[in-house]
């Protein structure tokens, strides 16, 4: 990422790091790459690092590299403001390695005006900012003259260090001070509610909400803030929330990542109400609670996705699910009303609080929504959630109802309206495998889950194979379903248990070798070629797999239906059948390297397979190399 940056300043930082580790071969290559980039020579302040980089990399440059560098120097020599730098660089290169036309421009050794460049001095910048107590006026911003500015400053000082990352000890010191300051300030704010509508005063809303949330973190539910403060905060928030906006400027999430929550008084008032209304006695104040829920309902009825999203992410589950009536309202507003996927996907985080049957019901409802904008995102999140729950086993050994839904989806995805779209279906299947894998990694002891794991992985792979339209769809199933079983990933887990999972993946592995497309086969043998599964499988299994694949290649070449070297970049298919045969040869080599070929029969089987790969018409160079090594040893 750093090497691709277009900024010369970033490359100077990169050079600084690389030069401390220039003994590393890859670092040396990166240094050479930078000093051969003509653009960086025109940036100011980088000459020191270029000079050091040139000295470090020059001994390892090739003739074509040096020719390119000298062309850069010729250009610099024709520029008055760069001529001095060019001569300095020439002075760092042995004179006998400089072309004749440039030697005349090389200064004499130890020329005073061409000494090595010094490292620029760093500037001591204070990134901690200015303490509020030293800049109180800036912290609180402009306020009407009727306000007690000292009271505002005191509140700002008291709340500036409140944070969800604070320790309990820190909160024990800061929260009481903040509560005292708020008790003095909030009555004054209630008398002048209109001033909090200004955008430059949202810090007050934010600080009040943070104070109440930190109070709960400090005291749990053993103590409550003063009742007067809670009521004042609730009324302050509701006075702004009553005017529900009909629209709101801002960006919706992209790829389930949201970084653009609007910074408006209404949004921050919602955050304060969310915090204040969880405290006794407001929790039992029916008029206030009803008004708040009515405001949230009104916000959802605007049908504005951004407003709905703000409500679903700001209002905590306690408000939504505290009673059967609230839960019914939640279901009506959340799962049926929104038409943008982001509102639904962000709301799914609360589904873990639902009973088993209700979760399956909601997933099924969403899988049949056809009116959702950005439905691919919804398919992705649903796939992940359903895949994860399908591999869950309760402490009493029971599986959840979502398993039945998973079976139905994998058996007939087109029976669900959302998945009739090809893109949505593929996205769901990919995410389903990922969710399954994530949960299986923690449930590996429960081998009764393994048959479903293997069967659903095979079924998903076959469906994705039939309709591959982009990279890492069908081949992604292979990687995701297998990689957690790699030697380097499994830690100290019982191999006998893992072997059960591995055995249930064999139908998928065999199917890939027998019927997989080029990307699938390349991915399969790429996962095998380093020997990461050699202690879970047997030489006979791998050699049998390799034999199946090799016979398929030979039959395709004989019939003329297969081109050993063909690729298809338009379909993001970058690897040929030949590449897969080379990886297969490396897989057999890994068996030999790891000492897995222990009997004469195993050696004979490996020798026969390598001979097929090395001979015409495949002519694998790696197979020839490994075969030669086996014969010599």
What is the makeup of the main sheet?
A: none
> How many extended strands?
0
Structural class: mainly alpha
Run of helices and strands:
HHHHHHHHHHHHHHHHHHHHHHHHHHHHH
Gross morphology: flat
How far is it from the N-terminal to the C-terminal residue, by CA? 44 Å
Q: What's the Cα radius of gyration?
A: 33 Å
In the predicted model, the low-confidence regions spanning at least 5 consecutive residues are: none
Mean of residue pLDDT?
88
Total DSSP helices: 29
**How much of the polypeptide forms β-strand, as a percent range?**
under 5%
Residue share in helix: 55-70%
Number of structural units classed as domains? 4
Task: Describe, in short, the structure shown.
The protein contains 29 helices and no strands. With 633 residues, it is mainly alpha-helical.
Write the layout of secondary structure elements.
Blueprint: H1 8-20, H2 25-35, H3 47-57, H4 63-77, H5 83-91, H6 100-103, H7 136-140, H8 149-159, H9 168-191, H10 202-219, H11 227-241, H12 265-276, H13 286-301, H14 305-314, H15 317-321, H16 324-336, H17 341-347, H18 356-367, H19 375-390, H20 402-411, H21 422-442, H22 450-466, H23 474-483, H24 495-515, H25 518-528, H26 539-559, H27 577-593, H28 600-614, H29 621-632
What does this structure look like?
The protein has 633 residues and is an all-alpha fold. It folds into four domains: 8-114; 148-326, no CATH class; 354-516; 538-633. Helices cover 60% and strands 0% of the residues. The chain has 29 helices and no strands. It has helices at 8-20, 25-35, 47-57, 63-77, 83-91, 100-103, 136-140, 149-159, 168-191, 202-219, 227-241, 265-276, 286-301, 305-314, 317-321, 324-336, 341-347, 356-367, 375-390, 402-411, 422-442, 450-466, 474-483, 495-515, 518-528, 539-559, 577-593, 600-614, 621-632. The longest helix is centred in the N-terminal third of the chain and has 24 residues, at 168-191. The radius of gyration is 33 Å and the shape is flat. The model has no long low-confidence stretch (mean pLDDT 88).
């Amino acid at each position: 990422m750093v090497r691709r940056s277009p900024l010369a300043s970033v490359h100077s930082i990169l050079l600084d790091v690389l030069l401390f580790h220039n003994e590393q071969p890859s670092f040396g290559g990166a240094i050479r790459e930078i000093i051969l980039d003509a653009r960086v020579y025109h940036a100011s302040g980088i000459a020191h690092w270029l000079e050091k980089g040139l000295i470090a990399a020059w001994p390892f440059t090739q003739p074509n590299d040096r020719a390119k560098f000298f062309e850069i120097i010729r250009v610099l020599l024709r520029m008055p403001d760069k001529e001095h730098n060019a001569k300095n660089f020439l002075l760092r290169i042995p004179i006998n390695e400089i072309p004749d036309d440039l030697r005349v421009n090389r200064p004499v050794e130890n020329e005073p005006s061409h000494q090595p460049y010094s490292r620029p001095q760093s500037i001591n910048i204070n990134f901690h900012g200015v303490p509020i107590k030293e800049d109180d006026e800036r912290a609180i911003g402009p306020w009407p003259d009727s306000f007690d500015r000292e009271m505002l400053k005191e509140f700002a000082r008291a709340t500036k260090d409140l944070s969800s990352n604070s320790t309990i000890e820190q909160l024990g010191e800061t929260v009481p001070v903040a509560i005292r300051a708020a008790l003095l300030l909030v009555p004054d704010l209630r008398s002048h509610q209109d001033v909090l509508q200004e955008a430059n005063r949202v810090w007050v809303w934010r600080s009040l909400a943070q104070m109440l949330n930190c109070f709960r973190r400090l005291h749990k539910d053993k103590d409550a803030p003063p009742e007067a403060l809670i009521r004042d905060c609730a009324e302050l928030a509701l006075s702004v929330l009553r005017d529900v906006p009909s629209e709101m400027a801002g960006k919706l999430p992209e790829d389930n990542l949201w970084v653009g929550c609007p910074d408006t008084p209404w949004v921050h008032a919602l955050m304060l109400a969310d915090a204040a209304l969880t405290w006794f006695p407001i929790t039992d104040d029916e008029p206030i609670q009803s008004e708040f829920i009515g405001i949230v309902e009104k916000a959802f009825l605007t049908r504005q996705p951004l407003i709905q999203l703000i409500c679903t992410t700001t209002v905590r589950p306690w408000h939504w699910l505290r009673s059967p009536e609230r839960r019914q309202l939640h279901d009506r507003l959340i799962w049926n009303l929104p038409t943008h996927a982001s509102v639904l996907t962000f709301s799914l985080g609360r589904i873990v609080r639902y009973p088993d049957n209700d979760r399956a019901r909601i997933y099924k409802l969403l899988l049949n929504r056809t009116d959702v904008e950005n439905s691919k995102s919804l398919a992705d999140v649903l796939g992940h959630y359903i895949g994860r729950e399908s591999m869950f086993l309760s402490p009493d050994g029971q599986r959840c109802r979502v398993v039945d839904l998973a079976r139905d989806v994998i058996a007939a995805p087109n029976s669900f309206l959302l998945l009739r779209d090809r893109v949505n279906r593929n996205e769901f299947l990919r995410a389903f495998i990922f969710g399954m894998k994530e949960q299986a990694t923690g449930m590996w002891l429960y081998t009764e889950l393994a048959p479903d794991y293997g069967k659903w992985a095979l079924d998903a792979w076959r469906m994705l194979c039939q309709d591959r339209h982009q990279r890492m769809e069908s081949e992604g199933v292979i990687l995701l379903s297998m990689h957690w079983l790699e030697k380097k990933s499994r830690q100290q887990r019982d191999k006998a248990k893992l072997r059960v999972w591995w055995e249930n993946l064999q139908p998928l592995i065999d199917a890939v070798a027998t019927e997989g497309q080029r990307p699938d086969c390349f991915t399969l043998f790429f996962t095998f070629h380093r020997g990461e599964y050699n202690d879970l499988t047997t030489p006979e299994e791998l050699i049998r797999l390799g034999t199946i694949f090799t016979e398929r290649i030979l039959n395709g070449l004989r019939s003329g239906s297969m081109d050993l070297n063909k690729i298809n970049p338009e379909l993001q298919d970058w690897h040929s059948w030949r590449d897969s045969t080379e990886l297969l040869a490396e897989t057999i080599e890994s068996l030999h390297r790891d000492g897995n070929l222990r009997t004469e029969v195993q050696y004979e089987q490996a020798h026969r397979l390598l001979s097929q790969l090395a001979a015409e018409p495949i002519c694998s160079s790696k197979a020839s190399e490994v075969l030669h090594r086996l014969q010599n040893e």
